Amino acid sequence: MHYDPVKNIFASFIRAVPVFRIGFYKLLDTMFLRSWYVRRELRRIRKEQGNKKIAIYDAGSGYGQYSYFMAKNMQPCSIYSVDVKEDWINDCKAFFKSRSLDTVSFGVEDLTAINHKEKFDLIVCIDVMEHIHEDRTVFDNFFRALKPSGSVIINSPSIYGGSDVHDDHEESFIGEHARDGYSHEDLQEKMGKSGFAKFSHRYTYGFWGDKAWRLGIKYPMLMLNVSKVLLVLLPFYYLITFPFTFIMMYMDFTSDNKVGSGINFIATKKD
């Protein structure tokens, strides 16, 4: 399945009706379990940093929902938010300006070609690396962009069923993915070669999270790939299924998953 055409539908919608953008962000935060995990890590980092101002690089900002969350919940901070899609960046620029969120700036950047040097305390890279073939180049660029003791948070599908691939003969559910996913050993090896020295990880979308993803995301996306007309049926679908999806997401979020189809990985640069 190709996910980008479905994402573009929603991008077009919030572009046409900007007043619904915040509601759309809240919907993403509710429906995508990855956001639960990422936001928990961001709150933890903000608490650990005390009152220190944090320079943040949102590496692959998409709709801008994490930049918005950080602008509201990570102060004091400055955020530089980038994506390769210029139209999405322009939409975000206009929206954040309309909300007077002047701690966030935007740019069109290719993560394989950036050349920032010790500018950021934190890099946030959510559901991006699985789309990039030259991951080692990006990890080198991230290391160079971080200040000493700075960290990068990476969220990605894992090799344990990420991209809905469960054996060597299956293809990725998401056609745009460059790889099916990572293990924590794979990320630690690759990022260690870039110079990172301290690592932590948490697998997400374990038994219950995987079931929630299928019910709440995969099946609706398959419907929309059949026909965009089925978009009108989604509210009725979620009215029936969301209570079950939410319970399963909560069970995953409060579990210690030994493996899962997603991974949150944090790498830190030496002082």
In short:
The protein has 271 residues and is an alpha/beta fold. It contains 9 helices and 7 strands; from the N terminus they run H-H-H-E-H-E-H-E-E-H-E-H-E-H-H-E. It has one domain: 3-Layer(aba) Sandwich (Rossmann fold), CATH 3.40.50.150.
Explain this structure.
The chain has one domain (4-268): 3-Layer(aba) Sandwich (Rossmann fold). Strand 1, helix 4 (65-73) and strand 2 form a beta-alpha-beta unit. The N and C termini lie far apart (43 Å). It has a 7-stranded mixed β-sheet, with helices on both faces. The longest helix has 20 residues, at 207-226. With 271 residues, the chain is of the alpha/beta class. It has helices at 4-16, 21-31, 33-49, 65-73, 86-98, 135-145, 184-194, 207-226, 234-253; strands spanning 54-59, 77-83, 104-108, 120-126, 146-157, 198-204, 262-268. The mean pLDDT is 89. The protein is globular and about 50 Å long.
CATH H-level superfamily title:
Vaccinia Virus protein VP39
CATH architecture: 3-Layer(aba) Sandwich
The figure for the number of domains is 1
Distance between the termini: 43 Å
CATH class call: Alpha Beta
Proportion of helical residues: 40-55%
User: What overall geometry do the principal axes of the alpha carbons give?
Assistant: globular
**Order of secondary-structure elements:** HHHEHEHEEHEHEHHE
What is the third-level CATH name, the topology?
Rossmann fold
What is the structural class? alpha/beta
Provide the low-confidence segments as ranges: none
Radius of gyration: 18 Å
Give the amount of beta strand, in percent: 15-25%
Number of strands: 7
Query: Could you report the average pLDDT, rounded to the nearest whole number?
Result: 89
Largest sheet: 7 strands, mixed
The largest sheet has its strands arranged as: 3-2-1-4-5-7-6
Number of helices: 9
